[in-house]
Structures are given as C-alpha cells and as structure tokens.
Fold these 2 entries.
Entry 1:
Amino acid sequence: MKPLRIAIIGYGKIARDQHVPAIQANARFALAATVSSKPEPHPGIPSFGTHREMLAAMHDLDAVAICTPPSVRYDIGRDCLLAGKHVLLEKPPAATLGEVEELARVAAARDATLFTTWHAQHAAAVADAARLLAGQKIAAMKIAWREDVRKWHPGQQWIWEPGGFGVFDPGINALSIASHIVPGALFVRDAELLYPENRQTPIAARLNLASPIASGAIEVAFDWRHQAGEMWRIDIRTADGLELRLSEGGAKLTLDGDPVDASGSGEYQSIYNHFVDLIDERRSHVDIEPLRLAAEAFLLGRRTIVEPFVDRVQDV
Ligand code: NAP
C-alpha cells in the first residue's frame, strides 16, 4: 500500500522529539515536508516558511500534523482541511472551543479526518486505569502536575502570551487523562490562577472539580515553579476502597500499592496508529473535554498575582 504523504507544520521541540520518529517508525506514513516560521530543512525533504506556500507547491500531500503553538492552529487547520488534507492536531487542539468545533464542521464537510490528539491519553498505563475505573464511583481524587518551566519550555515565549495556556500547557495533559479515565462527567467548581506580575498566563493553578459520580473532593494542583524533578501524578480512591496511582504522566500505574503491568504501546506510536485507522475509516476523532475543563478554569478562576517570572535564557 502506498504510504500516506504527511507534512509537519510547526517544526519545533515536539515535532523533532516525537513526531518525526513516530512517523519514520510507521510504514503507513512517509514524511514529505516541514513548515516552520524560520524554515529549517529536514534532510531529503522540502521545507517551507508557511503552510500556504506548501499547499500551493505540493499537491500530492495526504495529511498534515500541526505542531505549532495553539493560537495559530485554527487558520492552518482550516486551510489544510479545505485543501482536502487529513489533519492531526497536537494538544491543545486550538486556542478556543469554538475554533475546534468549526474545524470539526469543516472536516465533516470535506470528508477529511480531523484528529485532536491528547498524547497523555496514550501513555502506557492510562487505558489500564480506565478499565479498572469503569463502573466505579470516586471517593476522592488528587491531581498533582508539577514541573520546572525552565527545564521543559526553555526560552519559549508563546506560553506566556494570551492563548499560550501558561501552566495549563502541561496541566491540560492531566485533565486529558482525568476526562478519559473518570467514568462520568467532570466540571470545574472553583479555581485559583497564579499569574507572575509580568506575564499574561498563570505559572500555577489550583482547581476543585466535581462529578456526579464523585462523592468527595477532586483537587488539582499545577505548578511550574517545581525544581525537584517532575511530579505528574493522579491518585484516586474509589467508593469500593480501591487505591489507584497513575504516575510519570500516565506511564506507571499501581493498584492498592502494587504495580500493574502497563499494556499500552507508548504515546506517539499509538497516536499515529490511531491516525491511520481514522483515515482508513474516513472518521474524525474530536475530543474537546480537556480544553473545556481548562476554559472553565479560566472562566471561574480567581486571579492571584505572584512574583515576576524571569526566564534565564531570554530575560537575564
Ligand atoms: P516550540 O518548540 O516553540 O515549537 C513550535 C514551532 O512552531 C516553532 O518551530 C515555531 O517557529 C513554529 N511556528 C509558530 N507559528 C507557526 C506558523 N504560523 N506556521 C508554521 N510554524 C509555526 O513548541 P513545542 O514545545 O514544540 O510545542 C508545540 C505544541 O506541542 C504545543 O501546543 C505544546 O503544548 C505541544 N507539546 C509540546 C511538548 C513538549 O515537550 N515540548 C510535548 C507535548 C506536546 P518559530 O519558533 O520560528 O515561531
């Protein structure tokens, strides 16, 4: 079978670290082009400065993976869908819920596949956690997502601009796991967002979530000021007394303290396998739940101003 010719639009950290290797390891895809604001060639394939230049020059593309910051995804995704390309969106899929809904409408009208990926949902142990929680009620749940922004986003300025999500850029990964494994609706009850006085997006956040299937608190803490390694952990106690802990961003799971062998294949390999299935079946997969929860936090959040954030690389 002829491989699907795919281009990566937004050739930054995640494109290079994960998308290129996952595409190269999947026989159903052939990497055909890259697009970046400052074009940086990938060996053996053309690179373009804008997606419009690429669409005008390459008529034989089948699909694109959009790995830009979220604020520019809508225009790019719309142009690509209108050109008949299948579209994979990195997380978060766009800056607003309305943009994602409109992209889904365009994809349906063009009979093209739209896939809003949430890579953390594909972490090795997440499907096992969902299976163990199916049909359960939640007695208590704690999400702790703490990392060092200087380590994980060195020099990135877009994360601090409106539409850049701030600490919700990693935090939305936790929300994507929670909305995937909790067998019932989730919504935000209240939130506190901590903004450095010189930035437009929060550096930390505390949320309280609620669910019709939860009798106790669902507490969420995101923090980018954490310097002692990373903590990407979700603890859940069910009404039946089961204790689940997902750690390492969903890669590891324990049940009542005992390790559970993870059955998943790994995040980006699983994402591209699913993209192939969706294209073959001419289906879309559009999941807005994590973005809805983040939007609710921004709607309801009390704003607390904290000390300025100084980025070692850019500001000193
Ligand atoms: P990044 O390193 O800043 O890369 C973004 C790239 O997009 C840059 O090369 C940027 O070029 C390019 N770009 C910006 N606007 C563009 C446009 N209109 N057309 C074409 N290219 C454009 O950011 P990243 O860390 O890879 O993150 C990108 C997305 O992936 C984010 O939504 C993030 O949440 C997600 N993600 C990141 C990670 C991670 O570990 N970094 C993990 C999972 C998911 P310029 O720099 O020249 O503007």
Entry 2:
Amino acid sequence: MTFRKVPPGPRRLQSWLPLLAVALLAACSGPFPQSTLIPKGDFATMVDEVFMTTVKWAAVVFILVEGALLYAIWKFRGRPGDAEPEQTHGNAVVEVVWTIIPAAILAFIAVPTVRTIFRTSEIPAGAMEVEVIGHQWWWEFRYPEQKIVTANEMVVAAGRPVVVKIRTADVLHAYWVPQFAAKRDAFPQKYTTFYFTTDSLGAFTGQCAEFCGVQHGRMGSLVIVKPPAEFDQWVATQQVGSPLVDRGVVAVDTTTPADPAAAQAKAERDSVIARGQRAFMAGGCIGCHAMAGTPTAGLTGLAGPNLSHVGSRMRLAAGILTNTPENLALWLKDPQAIKQGSLMHLPRPLTDDEISALVAYLRAHQ
Ligand code: CUA
C-alpha cells in the first residue's frame, strides 16, 4: 500500500479557521464554577492578588521587550545594496544592565509572594477544623469538634474561619476547591492543611487534582456555605445518629401520636424504615456503609461513605449525579455502569422491590 502525502493547502487551513475560532471563543462563555480567577474567600483573594501583581509586571516586560524588538526590526531592516553591518562582540554595560533589570523585577515580585506565603500559613485562632480524607473515589469530611462525619459535601458557616486538614485512606489524592484555596496533596501518614474564610453563600465545586486511578476525573466535591444560624441547625441535625455521638445510637420513638393522621404518617414512615433496613442488610450495603439504626451506626473507617444523612446531600457518587430518587435508583441498580471501577460492588443484583425500599429508606435519612 502506498500513501500520498497531501500538504495542507491554504484553502484547507482557511476552512478550519472559523471552527478553531468558535472553539476558542466557546472557552470564554462561562460560567466558570472552578475558576481561580474568581476568588470567593480570603485565602484565594490573597493568592489572586499575587497572581495579578505578577501578571501586571509580566505585561510591562512583554510590552517593553516586544516593543523594542519590533522597533529594532523596523529601524534596522536590511535594504537591497546595504553593506555588511558592523559586527560587535560583547558589551559589558549592556550585559550588566540586562542582568540588573530582571533581578530588580524578580525582587518586586518576590516581596509580595513571600509575604503571601507567610500570611496564608497563619491559621486564624478559633478556626473550625474539618478533616478531609481522600478515598478512591470520594471525599470524607469529619468535624472533630462538632462530632460529624459526612461525605463529598463540606458544609461551612459564612464568616467563620475553617482549617482544613487533609490526608488519604488509600492512594495519593489532592483536595482542591479552586475558588477557596490552593490545591493540597493528600498523603497517607501526614496532614496537609490550609484555611479559608468566606462570606459567599452557595455551593462551590471542587475536584481531585492528583491522578488517583480510573475515576480520578470524577472525584468531585462541594463546599456549601450557609449563614451561621443555618449552619448550626445543620450541625444539630447531622449529630443525630453520627458515629461520633454515642456510637450512632439513636433513641427509637415507639409512641403512637394521638392524632390519627399523624399516627398514620408515623406508621408509614416506620414501615419504610423497616423495609429499607431489611434491604440494607440483605443487599450487602451494611458491609461498607455506616448507617444510623443498624449495627454499623457507630463505625468510622469503612470502605464507603456514612449514609446516616445521605438524603440531605445535593449530589450522589462524588458529584456525578444530582440526589434525586430516580438517580439513586439508577445508582443502586448498577453502580459500575455509572462509575466504572468504583468500589461500590453489589454482592448480587438488587431486586426492584429492594431498590424502591432502599430509595425510600435512604431519602428518609435527611
Ligand atoms: Cu482522587 Cu484523583
């Protein structure tokens, strides 16, 4: 077989140019949920200031150097019949000048950079601690003071400083929420830390930033910033059935409300919980997940996320799916179809009855 080499003619390039332009411009359309250029907290703002300082100096250097270059090209351009230009070798004055100028520019950049490195290493007194543990492929968040364990969604209070301590339970990961702080690697035997304070309410996405296996690209997380009062309420809810509070034991309410409608609602809820709990045990979920009301309620360090409040989370499977009943059912039916390689393996396929019982049960765990 022979191949004929076809050089890309100007026609061909021209036909590709509009497409290239569209592709380039599409990158400018936003929104930019993970842009470090839109800082949302004090740490990220300080880093952004250093970045912008550097960019401004670089722009000045670029304009001066390129300007001088273009001027020289134009001014000293060759003309037909020109004699050989004068040849020079070495010029001590010029060499000293072009060594001193970059050194001075570097000094101008170094001062704010080093100052920011020190400022971002000072953890504010009274900061709330959150331990971040990387797993293949999800994030665990533990709040030692509040005695809470949750997964994939770090909830914090606006205006209150947070210190994040990061480690991994398996391979190396890196925790990164671009709008709050620089990325930090997750090591097995030591903590890496950073802190941030933010006044921006809402949910902000983060991404694992160290290649950690087949689902590295789908190891997302959220930082959810609530007003302080709402945050305190969230803490109180999450403490009920937390493995760090009374080993997850929750008092079971065996009373029957006097009001018939309330009594029926409670009976229905109890039946959902009972059916779901049976499916949770029989389906093998209990092998990897801590769950209030089951024998694993008080355990930490299991292979999968704590599910005692899974119904209150925004997303499923480390940010891949919105937490809706339909998506939860899809996930339970075939987790490997959604997240191939995930450690979520079902010992046997769940029946449709089990899936619907589990969906109701898990959604009831708000
Ligand atoms: Cu975890 Cu990449």
